[in-house]
Design goal:
This protein has seven helices and no strands. The chain is mainly alpha-helical. The longest helix has about 45 residues, at about 45-95.
Amino acid sequence: MAEQPGETRAELSARLNWLRAAVLGANDGVVSTAGIVTGVAGAAGSRTALLAAGVAGLLAGAMSMAAGEYVSVSTQRDTERAALAKEQRELAEDPEGELDELTDYYRDSGLTDGLAREVAAALTERDALAAHAQTELGIDPEALTNPWEAALASAAAFTLGALVPLLAVMLPPESWRLGVTAAAVVLALTFSGWTSARLGGAAPGRAVARNVAGGLLAMAVTYSGGVLLDRITG
């Protein structure tokens, strides 16, 4: 993915991480909800039972994803803040040593001694903390991760993914439920696998195959479990 004009490396990395998280969240929504509804369908569940199970799985999954993402990103944000505070202390206690450290970074990046010093001094004068944070830590002090945004994005992505199998199993006639659901899941997982591969710069073929195979396996296992349960209790 191309870097946008004026976008720092830290911002680009954060944007790619958000996109990957959204794709994976949607993928989880597709697979987990498909597994639930096909399991209920295998147990000869009614339309009401399918709807109740699917909606319950959607809500539980979305909340779980949101809570997990909030905790994870909050921990990351705390770590970033601690690293920035440490860097700020070092700048206050030893500004010359930190300037030398920044100079060494640009010298190691290929600049001549004089130019490396000039660049380091100019960046330090402009914003010493930002200069050190971005070069040493890969952190943009003005663009720290937001746990609430992460939680909402994760829940929304999961919900959108979960709606695919839920609508696919609810809308068609009973005799078409499994076929339509399987087709919808394959299409959704193909798209999410292709997207995640492209975001990561990998060839999409294997990613799509793994994604689709995993989803179909989950559906087959839960459907078989539902059929077995229906026979045992029927």
